[in-house]
Write a structure and sequence with these properties.
With about 220 residues, this protein is α/β, with parallel strands linked by helices. The protein contains 11 helices and 6 strands. α10 (about 180-190) links the parallel β5 and β6. α1 (about 20-35) crosses α2 and α8 (about 125-135) crosses α9 (about 150-160).
Length: about 220
């Protein structure tokens, strides 16, 4: 359902049935990418467009990057019941827990736990550090979806370097100015499979959107 004739509605307004809005949005994204002459890898289109859809920011078409085999690795983890650990309750809320549960997975966020805050204060570290330590002790495979705290990435990198913990997969899209870019770069220098947005941009909404992009494609049978 596209534009309709109605004297009560400004003719510039595109009136669309609610269930068609998302499809129309993705069509617009595809059209604008073509106009901007931006070519994205076919295999990555579903999550790059999802990030653009979430942010209305076309920079993600050129800044989202991933390690070799990352798409297959992440899809396999989620299909086989891996849990997701995120660094904010916003990310926790945004991830589609119903679809994830269909494959045996669940989402965790330890950042707001009282005992995490208490331990972080006593040790003089961030809650993100303690949260990543807690996540490393989960008995299941874990996908990390980091959208806010670069210190979470730095802690995962530290554990990797010390060989105390090997993350199965990292979605690294923290937003900000302090240590954000270097934290992302350090993860990309490891052998950890990753999906990362270079630069300062990102956010919990982007982390959740990337998780959902994979979950939706898995549910459709495309991954």
């Amino acid at each position: 359902m596209g534009l309709r004739s109605d004297s009560r509605i400004d003719p510039r307004i595109e009136v669309i049935a609610p269930m068609e809005i998302e499809a129309r949005s993705f069509a617009i994204i595809t059209e604008e990418l073509e106009k901007k002459e931006i070519v994205i890898p076919k295999e990555a289109g579903f999550f790059i467009k999802r990030a653009i859809h979430t942010t209305a920011d076309f920079d993600y078409a050129t800044t989202l990057t991933y390690s070799k085999g990352a798409i297959e690795t992440l899809a396999s983890l989620l299909k086989n019941g891996a849990d997701i650990v995120t660094d904010t309750n916003m990310g926790l809320s945004g991830i589609n827990k119903k679809v994830l549960a269909e494959y045996g997975g669940s989402v965790h966020c330890f950042m707001a736990d009282e005992d995490v805050a208490k331990e972080a204060k006593e040790r003089g570290v961030t809650r993100a550090v303690v949260s990543m330590e807690r996540a490393s002790k989960l008995s299941k495979d874990v996908v990390f979806a980091i959208g806010n705290a670069p210190t979470a990435l730095l802690e995962l990198h530290r554990m990797y370097q010390e060989q105390s913990f090997l993350p199965k997969f990292i979605i690294g899209v923290p937003v900000g100015f302090v240590n954000v870019e270097i934290a992302k770069e350090l993860i990309m220098e490891t052998k950890i499979p990753y999906l990362i947005n270079r630069g300062r941009k990102g956010g919990s909404n982007v982390a959740a959107a990337l998780c959902n992009a994979f979950l939706y494609e898995i549910k459709k049978g495309n991954l």
